[in-house]
Amino acid sequence: MQKIFFIADTHFGHNNILNFSNRPFCSIEEHDECLIDNINAHVGKTDILYHLGDFCWGDTAKKQIDFAKELINKINCKYIHLVLGNHDPRTNSGQPKEDFIKLFNSCSPYMVVRIPNTPSVADIGHTKKKKTVLCHYALRTWEGMHGGSQGGNGSLGGDYGTNLPSGL
Prior knowledge:
22% of the residues lie in helices and 21% in strands. By secondary structure, it is α/β, with parallel strands linked by helices. It has one domain (4-164): Purple Acid Phosphatase, chain A, domain 2. The strands form two sheets. Strands 1-2-3-4 form a four-stranded parallel β-sheet, with no helix packed on it. The longest helix is centred in the first third of the chain and has 15 residues, at 28-42. The radius of gyration is 16 Å and the shape is globular. The two termini are 19 Å apart.
């Protein structure tokens, strides 16, 4: 059965993230290898992985895109959807770089997806799909939140309602 996973803020290749986020690694290479190993240990080839932004780092957009290709080739999962974060490559006008977004099955700053078999009081006895709103940034409100939808975010976690934890 196909499973759905969420992860955010991997910051592959971002040396400073080790200090900024107190990540317990001696080097960014060790960090990146551990994250890829953890993803591959939990997420199967046909599962779906939603990445909630800040995928990887590069000194230039070209280096970042080339590095992203290299990383995606190491991840076993073939269904990776990206919700854009503030460190994902963009053009001077703020639009996502075309070569970058092509690497993912879908790519958007905001996604509304339906997650099957998510439990809620209203779902007992039913196999419904729950509306789930995904954004890199914590949203104070989101589409359908008063009707039982859930929100998931990366960067700025907070207790604003029913938020999904992201991470493997």
